[in-house]
Structures are given as structure tokens and as C-alpha cells.
Amino acid sequence: MRAALVTRPLDIAALVAEVAHPGTGATTLFVGTVRDQHEGRAVSGIDYEAYGPMALRELETILAEAAERFATDRIVVEHRLGTLAVTEASIAIAVAAPRRVAALEAQRYVIEAVKARVPIFKREHYVDGTRAWVDNRGGSVVATSPTSAVAT
Amino acid sequence: MRAALVTRPLDIAALVAEVAHPGTGATTLFVGTVRDQHEGRAVSGIDYEAYGPMALRELETILAEAAERFATDRIVVEHRLGTLAVTEASIAIAVAAPRRVAALEAQRYVIEAVKARVPIFKREHYVDGTRAWVDNRGGSVVATSPTSAVAT
Amino acid sequence: MTTTVLLFASWADAFGPSLAVELPEGARVADLLDVIGSRAAGRPLPKPMVAVNQRYATPDQVIQVGDEVAIIPPVAGG
Amino acid sequence: MTTTVLLFASWADAFGPSLAVELPEGARVADLLDVIGSRAAGRPLPKPMVAVNQRYATPDQVIQVGDEVAIIPPVAGG
Fold first, then answer.
1. What span, in angstroms and rounded, lies between the C-alpha atoms of B147 and B92?
2. What would the 3-class secondary structure string for D13-52 be?
3. Per-residue confidence at A137, pLDDT binned at 50, 70, 90?
4. Which of D10, D43, D74 sits opposite A137 (nearest CB)?
5. Closest approach of chain B CAs to the CA of C23, in angstroms?
6. Which residue in B84, B89, B122, B55 sits closest to A29, CA to CA?
7. Per residue in B72-128, pLDDT tens?
8. On chain C, which terminus has fewer CB atoms closer than 10 Å, C or N?
């Protein structure tokens, strides 16, 4: 198991290779990428920020939970921080397990837990020049720039 | 969508790149690899054979079903045929979708359907020198070599 | 009519990659399975499906002259 | 006691990356949220969670001198 917060592009092939093992028959990879739109607004990029020490601790906790629940410790997750352009990867999760069900379900467990619990925050940049912090519940959006803070 | 039966090693990074699109926020990859054991027997490799034209047709049908069900046509599957060594990839499925649930569920739909329906057959080579055709139900195993055919 | 049946995996090991089977006009998939099954009697071969023109066929499907017929052992893709 | 509270995202935009908050001895997370909430009054800030020593805290958790306390806006990782 390995969790990391990084500021460089994610190397997907390296993560898949990292979990490989002769005893595994299934490998899954989940990659989150920056979309060009969000709720109808054209997006040009996303800033990812984290409460670093706690985010890393939560990621490690989630991997430990997944490892116990799905009986494989061949799981790595990397989350990228900083400003990402459309199509760039923000998160990659690779899991290898003896059987496919564990590999599929561990992957899903990790991404759902990351989205629910890990203190990472994102601010979308829109093509119209505005920016806003958004959250994974699709809930409140706080515009922060270039105008002063207003509810939207 | 693209399905292929190939006799060369699968290029996982190329498949992930192939489904990428600015409108997608989630990409999943499933890779099946040759395990070093099966039901307690030490495995040294697997021969994959296919009823080629029908297998390709079934793969294409499965992708069309997944595309309709999960509303994304950014799905590729490659299945390798021939003799594979332990850790080599026999199948890779890449899916990209606007949202993660579709990418996760399409991936699972495709691998389950492939395992149930596509006329591809595998013969395991064991470290003890024997070989046997095996199936995805974990069911009957027919030894074929080096002895003459006997039920096991 | 004589129908050429394609074989795979353990069935191909036992009989080669194809087998000529004599069937009456109007024969159904179930009839083919009876003929095939009698030839396989005593051999450790798994129960197959039948595909006609590259699609899985039901037992009552009629086999026509010129159909591409295949015996499909339990699949193991993935 | 004076507790330094770490802030992120929209809360950091509003108040900077940290905020000194005066709390009575024995104060709980709920008390901190009251103080923070009054400072945020009128601003469009999302309701946060609180972490103490890098773990999510319940409202009744007592804040000790020296604890690392953070206001966690709705998360958006992944």
C-alpha cells in the first residue's frame, strides 16, 4: 500500500506496474480527470489544495480499510495538487488482487471514500474568467474571483 | 468503441489514452493477468484460443450494450490470444465517462459479460508439466497433456 | 445434409478443428447435440453450447444448409 | 486559551490560512463552531467540519491546549 500527494503529472503505467504481482489475476485502475464542464459551465482548469498532513493520513487510513475489507494490500493512490488543465489526471488508484471482484470493489471503495472524507479542496476556473470552490456533494458553490465573494 | 483480438502484448497506457476526452471526468481500466496458481496448482502460463469471428462479434455486441446502458461510447477492449506467461495481460478494458459511476459500472459490465459469453478458451500450463482446459465457472477441467485425455 | 461443425478447445483436441455431421433436413440444434453427444460418449468432454452463424442458438433452432455451425465449450475469456 | 485554527479553501480566502480564536478552558468543538460561525456571519461560507489533531472531531470533543485544530470545508478530492 502506498498513498501520496504529488505536484507532478500522474504516471498511470507506473502505478499499474507498482501493484503487479504473479499472484494477482486482476488489476484495476481509476483515474479522475479534469472535465471541460461542470453543471453547464465551461471549465478551463482546477486548483487542487489539501490539508496535507491530514489528507495523507486519511488516504492511508482508507487504503488500510480497503486492504482489510478486500484482502489485498496491493493498492496505491496518488492525488495531484496544484493547478491542472482539462484532461489532466487529479487522482489515480491502482489495485491488484487475486480475483476480479476484490480488485473492482476495492477500487470503488477507495474512490468513494476519498471523495467523502479526504480534506482536499478544488477551485474550478471557468472559461468566462471566474473561479469557484466546489464540493463533491454538488452543493454550495462560493464564487471567489474576479468579483468579491458572493453566494451563487 | 473498439474491440480487438490481438497476439501482441497489450499496451495499457495506449488504451487509457485512446478513451480520453475533455468531456470525461473518470477513466477506468481493468486488466486481467495470468496468475501463478489456480485452485492450488502452480501455473506457468496460459494458452488463449478463440472462435475468432464470433468472439469479435460478441465483444462488439457487449460494448454496444455497455455504451447504451452507461451512456458512454468511449470504451475499448483488447483480448490477447496465444501463449501468455505469468503476469502477462490477457484482457484490458478502458472506459471513460463524464461521471465515475458510469465508468465504474461499465467496466464491470464488460468484464462480466466477456467472461460469460465470449467464445475464448484457455488451457493452463502447470509447473508439473501438465496442461488442462479450464472455464470461467470453475467447473470441469479436462486434462489434455502430456497424458491422453482423462477426466480430472 | 452434411453440416461442417467447427470445434474448439477440448472438443478440437478430441476431434480436430472441424467435423462433418450428417443431419436430416429440418434438423434442429438439439438433434445436432444428440449426434455430437453420441460421438463424444465416454470422452471427458464438457457440455457445449452451439452457435449458428456466430450467434448462440437455442435447442429448437433449425439448422439450414450453409449455416456456420460451431460447438462452443465452456468459455474462459477475460 | 488561544487556539490557532487552520483554514482552507473558501474559509482561507475569507480569513487567511489561520485564525487565532480565544476559547475558555474545556471548550468543545461545538463552542469553536459557534465562535467561528459568528465571525463568518454574512459571508457566503459553506458549513465546515472540524478536525482535531488531523482527525474529524465530534461536536462534544474537548479542545486541549496544543491541539492542532482545523476548519474543514466540504471536501472535493478525487
1. 34
2. HHHCCEEEEECCCCCEHHHHHHHHHHHCCCCCCCCCEEEE
3. confident
4. D74
5. 23
6. B89
7. 999 999 999 999 999 999 999 999 999 999 999 999 999 999 999 999 999 999 999
8. N
Rounded CA-CA distance B28/B68 in Å is: 17
pLDDT digits (tens, 9 = 90+) for A1-58: 999 999 999 999 999 999 999 999 999 999 999 999 999 999 999 999 999 999 999 9
Report the distance separating Cα A37 and Cα B37, nearest Å.
46
Nearest CA in chain A to D72: A119
User: Listing from the earlier edge strand, what are the strands of the sheet with D55-56?
Assistant: D18-22, D2-6, D69-72, D49-52, D55-56
Q: What domains can you pick out in chain D, each with its CATH number?
A: 2-72 (3.10.20.30)
Task: Please state whether beta strands B26-33 and B89-97 pair in parallel, antiparallel, or not at all (unpaired).
Answer: antiparallel
ipTM: 0.92
Q: Which residue has the cell 474537548?
A: D62
CA C75, B13, A26, B8 dihedral sign is positive
- Considering CB atoms only, which of B50, B123, B137 is closest to C74? B137
Q: Is the dihedral of CA A124, A126, A131, A132 positive or negative?
A: negative
Q: What's CA A98's distance to the chain center, in Å?
A: 24
Contact D32, D63 (CB under 8 A): yes
Q: How far is the alpha carbon of B115 from chain A, nearest alpha carbon, in Å?
A: 11
Domains assigned to chain B:
2-149 (3.90.1170.40)
Provide the β-strand partners of residue B125. B45, B131
Which grid cell sits at D41? 456571519
Cell numbers that stand for A139 in this block:
452543493
